[in-house]
Amino acid sequence: MRNPDWKSEAFWRWAIDNAQASPSILSQWFPELTRPGWEGRKRAAVLAHKHLAWPRPVTRADLARFGDEPPAGWPELTEPTESEREELAECVERDSEVDRLKREVKHLNAKYQHVIRDTQLEDRIVERIGDRLPSLPPVAAPTFSRRSGGRSESVVALWSDYHVGEVVSIEETGGINSYDFEVFTRRLQYHADSIGGICFGKLTGYDFPELVIVGLGDMVSGLIHDELVETSDGTLMDWLIDGAYLFAQAIRQLAAEFPTVRVEWHFGNHGRLTQKVRYKRRWVNFDYLLGHMIELHLKNQPNVSFRNHKSFWSLCEVQGTHMLNLHGDNIRGWQGIPYYGINRAVGNLSALLKGRHSFDVVNLGHFHQSGLLERMDCDVVINGSAIGGNEYSIGALFASSKPRQMLYGMHPERGKTWQYAVDLSHGDSHEARFPR
After folding, report:
1. 86 falls in which pLDDT band (50, 70, 90)?
2. Which residues on adjacent β-strands are paired with residue 307?
3. What is the pTM of this model?
4. Closest to 424 in 3D by CA, of 190, 175, 169, 181
5. Where in the chain is the domain with CATH 3.60.21.10?
6. What is the rounded CA–CA span in Å between residue 241 and residue 293?
7. What is the CATH number of domain 133-429?
């Protein structure tokens, strides 16, 4: 009998009679006894003496002489009444429930303490990185002066799906694509050079006071796919430390060309810590950590502002136009751009935010194909990738795409205007000037 009512005389009278029981039975009746042999029986008798105030404690020798008969002076046993049986059954049921609840509380408390330790560890990691990560020396921001007759627009550059650390084999893809950290460095350099080249070399009739970089996630290869880890270029630490330093240099180069640079940073699915998708604390993600490190590198650059979002989506305003930004991994699709899934997701988000927020442009990553989906209420700009096709897309889907990143203009009255899809494969032979 576990968890008995120790103050019940009926129980003690019953327990006294059974002090001669076997060790296994005593283990059930008295779970607190560590040695339910003769010593356990003696302990049971001592407990009975304490509750019934016998003349003296029962000794081991007394127990050895008792046999099946109780000693003189022990209370006479009687059959418990029906009410006593019901009371005892209720006690057992109540105590069993209390015991179950105690175990559940203990289990939940252990999980809570685990979460607290994890949170404190994450905070300590971020704090330690902030203490040790060097910031880049600032560059002078250009002075904005409106051209005579020029059109003032902001530039929106989508950055996503760089998959830093992933290796794509030229042999295994049949010559279609090759990618590693060196190719990433060259393509990033070409990406930064192209933004400045297009805005100030080709679009000469415009004024560009602001550049808005929208990071849409999957910037690192991550650890959730075993084959990507096994064939990766370096380790996660290399991707984060070297990748953050290179991305920060690219943003700093653009800060020397645009009077104001605004970064809206989001996380994707490759950077999550667990293979199973979670919806709580989704920002605990290597993309988020990478963004934090980039921000620290640029903390002394006065014309750069950085927002590292903890939500999987965000809204921002550019020249009076409201943009909804998200990676897009929670939009279901297969083989290519899932236009139906995107339409449904955008419609659901529009209904979800109705009355509180509205948006005119949606920026998506994840699908590794660039495109534009025009709706009556908004334009959906789908960013490509920086990596291009890999063994999975070619081997499983018989598909590949060029490594393209979207760039477009935002006018204060006309909204979204011109658009470019920058082909980063031209950067494979480009000089990489950013040091590691």
Report:
1. confident
2. 264
3. 0.72
4. 190
5. 133-429
6. 8
7. 3.60.21.10
